[in-house]
Amino acid sequence: MIYTPDSNDLSGKKRFIDHLEDFRKTILKIAVVISACFVICFYFSPQILHFLKLPLVKAIQASIQNHPVDEILRSLNPTGSFIMATKIAFIAGLALSFPLLFYFIASFLIPALTKQEKRYLAPVLITSCFLFICGLIFCYFIVLPLMLNFLWNFSRWMGIINDWTLEYYVGFVTQTLIMFGLAFETPVFIGGLVLLNLLSYKLLKSKRRHAIVIIFIIAAIVTPPDVMSQLLIAIPLVILYEISIWEAYFIERKQASYLAG
To answer: What is the pLDDT of residues 60-118, one digit of tens each?
Structure first.
């Protein structure tokens, strides 16, 4: 058979140029979706900012008395409000487009995966999205009010006037939300390392005590100095670690049965 540049090979596999074309189309779809979500979120940026302010209002309600929410934060830059609206719209747009982005990336990768890897893909994607959302919810309703209340009252205890700026506050809140969203991805991350044989059930189990100590140290650093707040942060992280241990156990069992069969 004479090879022609326009034909695929006999095995039915795509040529390198075809993969590049698929990759270009995937990038284009991602860019269009992110742009559309950015425009939508930019229009609703005042409402999104109001939503981000609510944990602060809840944390310092006694201190601010009857002041409107809009008067809590200040901007010292003439373009500060516009810049923050753009940043908020971009981050919210990414979050809004996240499911579609996952779908586009998965559609591009699926043809290159083996049958066994394809079976793992859907559960991994669904679990990742679910855990990330749980991390955001936990942070927004529990962690942020505790942290903001502590930081606000600590400044007053030090004799410092709280005059927080919009830029620093939004940066702090978004970073904390993302950090906890990623922290809740621990079972997925550890499961991937177990599948790659970089971690094992025995290793995770043997390091349980060290992991718990580290988790409580982190909780003590990022929360107010009271036991209840530390427990509210540490217990979910310990539970996630325990889930990861059992996840590693079942993954290793399934791999062993697959190799034996």
So the answer is: 776 665 555 556 788 888 888 899 899 999 999 988 888 788 788 877 777 776 776 66
- C-alpha span between 220 and 231 (Å, rounded): 9
Reported pTM: 0.78
Provide the CA 178 distance to its chain's centre, in angstroms: 5
Residue spans of alpha helices (H) in the chain: 16-43, 45-59, 61-64, 80-109, 115-138, 144-157, 166-183, 186-195, 201-206, 208-222, 227-260
Contact 38, 96 (CB under 8 A): no
198, 208, 216: which is closest to 246 by C-alpha?
208
H helix runs in 110-206, sequence order? 115-138, 144-157, 166-183, 186-195, 201-206
